[in-house]
Fold this protein.
Amino acid sequence: MYYYYIIKSETLEKYYIGSCANIEKRLKYHNNGWSRYTKTGIPWILCYFEKFDLKKETLQRERFIKLKKSKKYIESLIENNVAG
């Protein structure tokens, strides 16, 4: 199982989009400051995720969301909890 996820930094009011195979481990990674990009935004909270059987599908979905470059779109996903 693979996950595409959105986390939010309450201190920076920013979102981060990523993908992984173990969502709990990945959130811990971000909150322990092991990622250069997310280190300054600790604490991060998981706002949204989608599950996929194939890694390829997960990466396609992640890319689709990132190409939107829209905070409004991300917030609508979270608010409506709409997958796909």
The first strand starts at residue 2 and ends at 9. The chain has a mean pLDDT of 93.
